[in-house]
Amino acid sequence: xxxxxxxxxxxxxxxxxxxxxxxxxxxxxxxxxxxxxxxxxxxxxxxxxxxxxxxxxxxxxxxxxxxxxxxxxxxxxxxxxxxxxxxxxxxxxxxxxxxxxxxxxxxxxxxxxxxxxxxxxxxxxxxxxxxxxxxxxxxxxxxxxxxxxxxxxxxxxxxxxxxxxxxxxxxxxxxxxxxxxxxxxxxxxxxxxxxxxxxxxxxxxxxxxxxxxxxxxxxxxxxxxxxxxxx
Length: 231
Prior knowledge:
Layout: H1 3-31, E1 43-44, E2 56-58, E3 62-63, E4 74-83, H2 87-95, E5 107-116, E6 123-134, E7 137-148, E8 152-159, E9 163-174, E10 181-191, H3 197-206, H4 211-223
Antiparallel strand pairs: 1-3, 2-4, 4-10, 5-6, 6-7, 7-8, 8-9, 9-10
Helix pairs in contact: 2-4
């Protein structure tokens, strides 16, 4: 092939590409801007509850939303401890949701909105509103609180724009010595938006992992020194 022929073909190819680009630009001006969206990454995670009797962490979730790790938004936290207060004492402190604002650092307001009737005298249920604030976030939400005196407290968030779901469970059983308690605590939460990913990490570290200690300190203030126990 002659140099002239090769050069002619190269020029023709460039002209053709330029015409195609002009066509795309004209089409984009008529139909709107052209945008490109990469396919989201989807990785299925595997989770299970840990069996260690001490404080344990477990996260689960599906990775989606353009590579954003959904397990950053959702976490499950479990804690099992032996505390030097009776099940009744710990139950009374945890069940008094309207007093959370007095001793939980992140709780700015707490109030009971509505009581629900129950047949069993040891069962109780009510709706409570909490306003939580940590770092630069302040959010109010309503939870359904279900009580089985003096064994169990469960709260489930009902009306919140911050959480996709938020569930807390407390269980109280007699401990190894009189006046002590085997405490089981679980919180399962997921934030609504990937934009809250960093907030979720802060919430998990600064709030959730310190809850049991906060209630134990509240018992000390109300009931005095704890019974000596070996965990």
